[in-house]
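Researcher: Going back to the complex we discussed earlier. I've cleaned up the inputs and rechecked each line, so this should be the final set. Can you rerun the prediction on the complete assembly and write out the structure?
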Amino acid sequence: MENLILEQVSFCYNKIPAVSDISLEIRKGELFTLLGPSGCGKTTLLRLLAGFLHPDSGRILMDGRDLTDLPAEKRRMGVVFQNYALFPQMTVEENIAYGLKVRRAPKETIHEKCGYYLDLINMREERAKNVEQLSGGQQQRVAIARALILDPDMLLMDEPLSNLDAGLRIKMRQEIRELQEKTGVTTLFITHDQQEALSISHRIAVIDRGRIRQVGTPSEIYNAPADAFVAGFVGKANRLSSADAAALGLEAAKEGLIRPEWLTLCPDGGKGLPVTVKQVVFDGPCFHYTVTAPGGMYEVSMLNRGTPPYAAGQHLFLQRADGRGGAA
Amino acid sequence: MKKLICLLLCLSMIFTAAVFGSVAAFADEPEMEDTVVVYSTHSEKLLDAVAAAFTEKTGIKVESINLKGELADRVRSEKDNPQADVMYGGDSATYTILQGEGLFEPTFPTWRDELDPMFKAEDGSWYGTIKTPVLLFYNKDAMSAEDAPKDWADLVLPQYKDKIVVRDSLSSSMRSTICNLIDNITASQGEDAAWQYLADLDANIKNYYNSGSMMYSALGKGDAEISWAVLSDIVTNRDTNGLPFEIIDAASGSVILTDCIAAIKDAPHPNAAAAFVEFAGSKEVQVLLANEFSRNPTLSSALPECPDWMQTEYAALPVDWDNISANQLDWLEKWETDIINADKNLGKD
Amino acid sequence: MKRNRIPIALIVYYACLFFLLAGYILLPMLNTVAKAFHFEEGFTLSVFRDYLQNPNNLRVLQNTATLGFLSVLTCGLTGTLLALYLHFVQLRWKRLLHIILLTPMMIPGVIIVIAFIELYGESGILTNALRLFLRLDHPPFYLSGLPGILFVITYTQYVYFYLNVSVALKYVDRSAIDAAVSLGAGKLRIFRDAVLPVIRPALITSAMVTFVSGIGSFSAPNLIGGGYKVLSTQIVRSKANNHIDIASVQVLLLLLIGVSVMFVLQICRKRAGYVRNVRAASWQPVRKRTLFTAAAGLLIFLQVLLILVPVLGIIYMSFNTTHSIMTDIFPHELTLENYAALYESDRVLRPIKNSLNMSLISVAAGLALTVPVSYLCWKRKDLPSGWARAVMMLPWCLPGSVIGINLINAFNRKSIFAFGQSLIGGYWILPIAYVILSLPLLLSYNDTAMESFNPALDQASHSLGASSWTTLRRLILPGIAPGIAAGGILAFIRTVGEYTVSALLYGVYNRPISISMVLNIHDFNIGISMSYGVLVILICFLALLLLLKLDRKRFL
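Model: Rerun complete. Updated structure for the full complex:
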């Protein structure tokens, strides 16, 4: 399979645009994430790719084949739904085997492949269990296996982790990443959780209100956000006033955006902005300081090194953590 | 498991439907002349008896239903595609109307010449096979002979308020009686007097019954004292069920109806229809009906073999049957709409 | 997949479907309307004018509407109070009580009327017992006229209110009630603010069904109404007098009354909205014994008694001779002859076979019509399926008499919709009428079942390569089968004992049980009539048990 290309795809729900003029290329074998807030159109995009919706304009191409008018059942896309959509009253094995049964594959093939994927997701013992008796994480895995067993050209995952609790979420996303690397299947991953996106993706597209804001690798997205939206959505960003920005030696062209962890506070003067600590928030690994500066209020994140933090009301100096920046 | 039950349920439903559906389809198209279909006003017992005797004699199967007061209307509704072969029961005025609408096929049974002209249509469209007197009667345990009414005119007297029960407007004998009364009173006192009479009568009537047995039940238990009904029913309830009824030979005369029979035009089994008409009106059957169902015969040759009490002739209320025929439906509509319980509110007492 | 591409098979299907719907529902209705206006001779309002100018006819209209409204009132109060009590207070034997309270649903109306006459009528067993007990000359009251009709209607129809309100009460949020209590609200206020909004849609829906039942009620007014004339009985009489135009006018007026009230209620329901608290905490029934709970308990006890007595009465009378039933105040001549007659005579057994066959056929046909429409409405949401659905729901606001007259008017001539035949008097007209009667019921059950099916499963199936047809076959039908079967069983129960339409349309080959029962009463075979009744109750009871097993969520 070559790459999947979306060409200026648009779609409206009842005259309200959900997806506007989107063009994307997803490379073979990569785990590509669509990241954005609720209602931004990422699920719509997934459904357009899967074939559940037909675009108002634009084309979808895979291997040079035009998929746009093809019905869902002919597209060879595996879909993992947010609520897993496992077939009730069927066992784990029956769910996984469904696609093959529909294709009337011979019994031995079905048995063999099922066995393989059951091992892949570590659920061989539970093969005869009814899916309604499974936990969230187990259902998640069965849903993935059910999609993968058909050797799809692409795997589409619609916020698969959002229904799991926090600890399980982190564990499962690692599993998904490992699974993807093992099978090599091109994967489109939808999420609103930027941590998830950053930790498992090869590339990310940030979407807002139906339009793509930026496409890039996780570090590109995080370290070099294209605009204020991306900067604010993926991680936190301070917007420095032009005076403050200049004081710290930042180009005005970058809109004075700087991440809290790229700033630091020092007790002694010399260089940096004089600021006053307004509030301290402790979350375990870091201290987050809200400081009042001449040009506004900013946030600074510093690692917890086991030493006591600065206190509210303290007067300190704001500097860049990388040591650069102009003199006071 | 639930899936299996549901599947079995669906399958059995479809299977039964198919089997019985096909059986029914066959029933829908019986072979010619092996069956005759009879629509009637007579009770099932009577129909069964006549049918059994007919089948035994001719080998033709009889399918019949009792449509009661809606018989004429059903025959009329099926005009374009008659399902029945024979119309059996209902009074001569109704038959005259239907004859006029061209719904009958003339037949010529062997006994037709013996019949009095008032019991048959000239062109052979229909024949009267049962004389049905409608007589006044009262519960003699609840009311003495002196207190009982002597004539139709007495029924509107104040002392009989709430003592009279009758059948409702869907009963064919009731419809005939009302029309007879209207015709008779109009002839002597004018139409307004007739409607006034009916209104006064309605005021004295306690209840109109859709079901005959319920009416007799009420009379039997003493809830009302006076009524009128076909003679055979009175006799049955008096003699078989032991109810204390006394017949009133009304001074002006009683309503003498003729229950008729006719073959329907374009019937599915015309030959069987003619055979049934021949059979049902024959002396043999008239005697049977007289002895087992208390039905008066129309053939005088049958009379000697009938029960003694049947030998009494009841005087007929003088009426013009053609006039009744012409006006029947409009009279009944008016009676139904304006007279029955015009102001009464049943259930309050 | 092009969005608007319709497969050929679907076009053919829709064509056939609309052919049937037009021919059997729409056109017959329009035909009757035409007859009311004498269309053949040119449009005229004279029949209407004459009809409405007669004060007696206006009284009939008034009676009919009054009956409808009073039915809603009595059934609403009874059913709702029962539901509230059972939900909020009663704890022991809850399931048993629930099933008993559902029993009237499975007893055909005509059987109830007959039983009521025998028990509560002027010469009824219980009326007489009361009279003797109080040593009166005349019974203190008896069943007839408007009160009698209302009594019968309430007995059979309160079940809709009871059931719908019971289901809706499950969504009452207990925490909302707790909040109200903690803010100092009294019982009435709590009811008004926390409970009423949740059950209002159920109340309105039940009111719609009950109103149409009330104005279309036939067996009660016909057999015990006496002087209380309503449109349904007058229609039959006008027809018997061959005044088909007057009958058509009456049909039209009946329809207008029904439709206008339904319309108003529909608007109310849209305003009431839907309150679905998915996370509603389950309710802990009140255990306190107060005056209120004692009174309510008494009410339930009375209700259960009232429900059971006619059933027991019918069963008891079926074992008595007719003579005893007719003459003794308390029948006591026990016999098996009524049941023996059922075995001995094929003629006696035939109506039972007829009714069972026709009900099964009509349910099968009804399902075959409604399941695809439900599915297509859900899946494609296109115009034709929406229209089909609307037409199929139309009979919901058509009382039985209206449907009967429509069919008679349309099919007493040869018709292309019957493939060149006239259907009146034949076998098939009655199953067809039953199908029309059942369509709204089947459709609403199918819709509910369909809506509870997770659309994501449908998409999942497609994404795994299954076509719509394969998905339907493998996944959807098995999933919604219990809901569909429940609707089918209810439709079966309803048609087995149906009387109103049957009385207008039955013929030689398809005489149903209900007609036989009434005819036997007329022919003084009260005993046999009772044994028919017991048989029907038995059949329906078995069906009800099956229903409870299949659709637990809704009924238990």
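Model: Worth noting: Chain A has a mean pLDDT of 87.
Researcher: Good, that matches what I expected from the previous run.
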